[in-house]
Design a protein that fits this description.
There is one protein chain. Helix content is 50%, strand content 11%. The chain has ten helices and six strands.
Length: 258
C-alpha cells in the first residue's frame, strides 16, 4: 500500500503543484521566510536509523526548498540549522550534526546560485566549522540569487544580547555617555546591530514536525510575522507542503501585531 501511494503521488503531484504555483497571487508572496527544520531525529527513529542519518536526510531537503522559494519569488530564506541549546547535546551526537551542517553549507556554496550568510554566535563553534561557514559566505558574496541566512548556532535571546552589546561598544568608542545613549536609544538602533541587519523581517515562519512554538527563533524579527506549522518531519517536507504554507500566507489578512 505505501508503494502504491508513492506511485500515485509521483504521478499526480507535479501537475497539482504546478496548478498551485500558477494560482498563487504574485503580489502576496512572502519576501522573507524563516524555516525551522525540525524533526530530523524523530524521522530517523521512525525509519530505524541514527541521528546522523536523520540530519543528512534533512540536509538533502534544503536545496529543494531553495529551488521552490526561487520559483515562487521569495528573496530571503533563513534556515535554523542549530540552536545555541543544541550545543549541549551529547558529544557523539553533536559531532555528527556539526559535520552534516558544514557539508550542507559547503555544498550550497558550491552551487554558486545563492548568497550564504551565517547568522549566529560563530564564536561558540569549533574553529573548523566556523571557518567553513565564513568561506561559504565569502565565495558567494557577489552572487545575485536568494539570500540564505544560515542560523548556526542561533538563539533569539543571544542575538538580542549581542546586538545590545555591539550597540554599547559602538557608542563607547564614540565617547557617548550612558546618559546620552539612554536619551536616544530606540528599537531601530538595536535592529541595526542584529545578525540580520539591513534585511527585511520575515513575513512567514514555517516550522515542521507538528511543534507549535518558536523556541527562540528570530524573536526580535518575527514580532509581526505570520506562522505556519506543518505536521511533516523536515526530511519528509515536500513541495506541496511548502506551497500550502505560501498559499495560507497569501490568504491571510496581515494585522501587523494588532
Amino acid at each position: 500500500m505505501p508503494e502504491l501511494k508513492e506511485r500515485v503521488r509521483r504521478l499526480f503531484y507535479p501537475a497539482y503543484e504546478a496548478r498551485m504555483v500558477k494560482a498563487l497571487p504574485k503580489d502576496r508572496i512572502p519576501q522573507h521566510i524563516g524555516v525551522m527544520l525540525d524533526g530530523n531525529r524523530r524521522w530517523a527513529k521512525g525509519v530505524g536509523g541514527d541521528s546522523t542519518q536523520g540530519y543528512r536526510a534533512g540536509a538533502a531537503n534544503i536545496e529543494p526548498l531553495l529551488e521552490w522559494s526561487e520559483e515562487v519569488g521569495v528573496r530571503v530564506v533563513t534556515l535554523w540549522l542549530l540552536s545555541t541549546d543544541n550545543l549541549h547535546r551529547p558529544p557523539e551526537q553533536l559531532e555528527g550534526l556539526l559535520t552534516v551542517i558544514g557539508d550542507a553549507v559547503e555544498q550550497l556554496a558550491e552551487q554558486q546560485r545563492w548568497r550564504i550568510h551565517p547568522v549566529g554566535a560563530l564564536d561558540l563553534l569549533p574553529a573548523v566549522l566556523s571557518n567553513r561557514l565564513k568561506e561559504a559566505e565569502e565565495s558567494t558574496r557577489d552572487l545575485g540569487g536568494i539570500l540564505v541566512n544560515v542560523a548556526v548556532p542561533y538563539g533569539g535571546r543571544r542575538e538580542i544580547a549581542d546586538a545590545v552589546r555591539s550597540l554599547l561598544q559602538e557608542h563607547a568608542e564614540r565617547g557617548t555617555s550612558l546618559e546620552e545613549l539612554a536619551e536616544v536609544i530606540d528599537v531601530d538602533h538595536i535592529a541595526e546591530h542584529l545578525y540580520t541587519k539591513g534585511q527585511p523581517d520575515p513575513d512567514l515562519v514555517i516550522r515542521t514536525s507538528g511543534e507549535q512554538r518558536l523556541g527562540g527563533f528570530l524573536l526580535w524579527q518575527s514580532a509581526q510575522s505570520e506562522f505556519y506549522f506543518c505536521e511533516a518531519y523536515w526530511p519528509d517536507f515536500r513541495k506541496v507542503d511548502f506551497l500550502r504554507a505560501i498559499r495560507a500566507y497569501a490568504q491571510r489578512e496581515r494585522r501587523y501585531g494588532v
